[in-house]
Amino acid sequence: MRTAVVAGLVLLGFCATTANTAPPSEARTKLQGAALEGRLEVVEHEPIVIAANIEVPEGWSAMFDWDLQRPAKGRETDNGRTLHVWAPPGEYEIELEVFLAKYDEATKQVQFRKDTSVTALVVKPSNAPRPPDPPDPTPGRPSAVLILRDQENDTATEAAALQDLRQSELFQGGTPKLMILSTDAETPDGKPDPIAQKYLAQVPQGSDYPYFFAVDASDHVVDSGEVPDDPAELIKRIQARLR
Fold first, then answer.
1. Which end of the chain is less crowded, N or C, counting CB atoms within 10 A of the terminal residue's CB?
2. Which domains does the chain have, with CATH numbers?
């Protein structure tokens, strides 16, 4: 397994044949040198795991918020500390924001702190044959849930609801997939993200964010609306469409 630290992130890139074998010292040194530049290179179809290597001080609580450029996809585990990534060949920017909070008994106030880490993921093409496509799912059944968030104006309640959704059992299995995009998301060249813009145009005027869209495999919206403060309500709503 290859491991490297980048600005508070542990980057893990490994393949099935080497997952249990530590690299020689020369390979480890070379990888760490590349990682210091905020860069991880892997070959297409290799599993990619990115884990937050951040010490949470005693008495503080932490919330992890990942932002991954499309068409790369990610799934969080370990209470948000770890991100599993699937991506076609290309270069992607991965951002992690860690929100720390602590209640100060002396001042009777909550202290907040935010740490941000950014790294580049480079996925190189592989000569291995492409895995077969999965069978078409049932039409009208949600295959993905996309949530647009106004990240600059998120309240603590809204941010907590999104974190609970990421960690819910519904989205841990990968079906449906969960994607959370900022309303002002951009592509690597600084242009508005076309996916965010596509769904932003479908948000009714006067609606509050975060706003969700449940989409089937044919890219048809089968449900949409404002994300409730209680994430359990949205989970039940999506589960009803999966039956």
1. C
2. 2-124 (2.60.40), 144-242 (3.40.30.10)
